[in-house]
Amino acid sequence: MQAFFKKIIVILLQMEARAVLRKYKPKIIAVTGNVGKTSTKDAIFTVLASSFFVRKSEKSFNSEIGIPLTILGLQNGWYNPFVWLKNIFLGFSLLLFPNHYPKWLVLEVGADRPGDIKKTSLWLKPDIVVMTQIPEVPVHVEFFDTPENVIKEKGYLVAALSSNGLFIVNGDDERALSLKNRTYASSLSYGFNEENAVQASNADILYEDKKPSGVTFRVNRDGKSIPIRLRNVLGRQHIYPVLAAFSVGLSQGITMVRMGDVFEKAIFPPGRMRLIEGMSESIIIDDTYNSSPTATKEALATLQQVSVSGRKIAVLGDMLELGKYSIEEHRNAGKMASGICDLLISVGMRSRMTDVGGGAKRMGKKKREVFDTSVQAGEFLKTVVKKGDIILVKGSQSIRMEKVVEAIMAHPEQKREFLVRQEDEWAKK
Known about the structure:
By secondary structure, the chain is of the alpha/beta class. Helix content is 38%, strand content 21%. Strands 2-3-1-4-5-6-7-8-9 form a nine-stranded mixed sheet, sandwiched between helices.
């Protein structure tokens, strides 16, 4: 019965969303890819909101139900049928009565299963498609026959572009670049390679009072260059979204100086390489929003690069939906961590392979710990964290690694402000 009710709700919401798009005719930016979609969507919104009336997908509303909710400006009803009925009524009211509707929509479009994007692209016709990185082992690959089929699924959205649209693509990623042949629209690439139209250079970690406080780099375009500082976050994971946002902004006539000012004051969403003050004067890199092999490698590479007075600790939870790649990728994470960390903590059933990858010969038993749950890992960390330590915490959504961060943050009373999944609905899970 629940599945039938959901199907009816999805059909009604999509019908309303399509009608709303026909009535108000907003410009649509669709963000897809496999790594960094939500951060890229948020960065694009940050740039466009400085000049236009814009709405973005909340959190990671990127599914058959999340995309219509964003278009209609409605909230998730979770398991409450009365909220869903109210949503249907509010959707119809947009069609019946005048509304001050956004001029731009920034929509995240994901693919958990084969056919997800293909079905969405039948009715969602974007003006701009932004393609983030597509790694060799993509997220959700468990549900696709091959990684190539994941790329093919992403390509349906690119093919939905009209010939006068714009395809903005991560130019450092050959798999993403290959999708240029799916459209006649013009394209614009971004990345670190010099061949990209919008290019980053001079990336480094920003330190204040001998502690890491953010990242600094330059954005270059057509001989012009501007310095950018992002505070309270670390990693290239934040540079790529900024480059994508600059690409969108430049296509709409927003100046590089204006965009630089916007990011100077930007506050980044929780759980994405956010710097948080930890207990005992430690530092937490909170990357608990989600996880994948590529994102884990990038996070560990950042941990390796950063300089601190204490130890480097990695707390790695399970990476889900990897299918046949799961054992190998968890072992690879452990191997990489063993060359970087003073202490490796693995959380979850799959992450026992991370511990194996860490290896007794590489790290020694006293430098490795394994726990079944994030709560257990957090309680252990409380007893070992010292002044000057930096702790990277990462794992897939269902492992709830934000509970580790809550256990060791200096001000846990601020958890609703700083951590992911703090809604009452998540607390019940």
